[in-house]
C-alpha cells in the first residue's frame, strides 16, 4: 500500500513554492551526455554533488498544472515538482534497477477549493519498499525523512 502524505498550511502558495525551490539545487541534464561520452566518474560525481541543495535534493523539472487547467476554463494554482538526487537513486538502482521507476520523486503544491495551500507526495519507502530489497528500502526510508524535512521547512 502506498503511503500518501498531505500537508496543509496557511502560508501563501507563492511563499511555499519559493521556499521549497530555495532548498533544492538544480539538476543539469548535460551530465547524462558527459557520462555517455565517457567522462570520468569521479568528476561527474563531484559535479552532481555541487548541484545538490541544502535539502539534499535537486529540482529536475516543474509542471504548472494550474496553467494547464486554463484550457478547460479553470483558474487554479498547482505546481508539480520532479525532485531527487541521482546519487541517492544509484544507491538503490545498483541493487534493483526497478527502483528507477520511482526515481526521481514527485511532489505537488496546490490551492484547494477553500484556498488553503496543500503539499502532497507519496512516501518513498512505500514506493520503493515493494521491491523487497533491504538496501533499497534503507535509502528510501532516508528519503522519507529528507522529503518530510523539505516540506516542513517550506511550509513554516
Description:
- The chain is 44% helix and 22% strand.
- The chain is an alpha+beta fold and 156 residues long.
- It starts with a strand and ends with a helix.
- It has a single domain (4-155), classed as TT1751-like domain (TATA-Binding Protein).
- β5 and β6 (117-122) form a beta hairpin.
- The protein is built from seven helices and six strands; from the N terminus they run βαβααβαβαββαα.
- The mean pLDDT is 97.
- The chain has helices at residues 13-22, 30-36, 41-51, 65-69, 86-93, 124-128, 134-155; strands spanning 4-9, 25-26, 58-64, 78-84, 105-111, 117-122.
- Strands 1-6-5-4-3-2 form a six-stranded mixed beta sheet.
Strand order of the largest sheet: 1-6-5-4-3-2
Shape: globular
Strand content: 15-25%
Kindly report the name of the CATH homologous superfamily: TT1751-like domain
CATH architecture assignment name? 2-Layer Sandwich
**Number of DSSP helices?**
7
How do the SSEs run, as a string of H and E? Answer: EHEHHEHEHEEHH
Q: What's the main sheet like? A: 6 strands, mixed
Cα distance spanning the termini:
29 Å
Would you tell me the overall average pLDDT?
Answer: 97
| Helical amount | 40-55%
Radius of gyration: 17 Å
Low-confidence stretches: none
Task: Give the domain tally.
Answer: 1
DSSP strand count? 6
* CATH third-tier fold name: TATA-Binding Protein
**CATH domain class name:** Alpha Beta
Q: What would you call the structural class? A: alpha+beta
Amino acid at each position: 500500500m502506498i503511503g500518501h502524505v498531505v500537508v496543509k498550511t496557511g502560508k501563501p502558495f507563492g511563499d511555499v513554492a519559493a521556499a521549497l525551490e530555495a532548498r533544492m539545487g538544480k539538476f543539469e541534464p548535460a551530465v547524462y551526455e558527459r557520462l555517455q561520452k565517457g567522462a570520468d566518474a569521479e568528476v561527474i560525481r563531484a559535479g552532481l554533488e555541487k548541484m545538490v541543495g541544502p535539502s539534499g535534493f535537486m529540482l529536475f523539472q516543474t509542471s504548472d498544472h494550474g496553467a494547464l487547467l486554463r484550457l478547460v476554463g479553470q483558474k487554479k494554482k498547482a505546481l508539480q515538482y520532479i525532485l531527487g538526487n541521482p546519487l541517492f537513486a544509484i544507491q538503490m538502482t545498483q541493487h534493483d534497477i526497478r527502483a528507477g521507476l520511482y526515481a526521481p520523486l514527485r511532489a505537488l503544491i496546490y490551492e484547494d477549493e477553500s484556498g488553503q495551500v496543500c503539499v502532497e507526495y507519496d512516501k518513498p519507502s512505500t514506493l520503493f519498499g515493494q521491491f523487497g530489497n533491504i538496501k533499497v528500502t534503507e535509502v528510501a526510508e532516508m528519503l522519507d525523512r529528507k522529503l518530510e524535512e523539505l516540506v516542513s521547512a517550506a511550509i513554516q
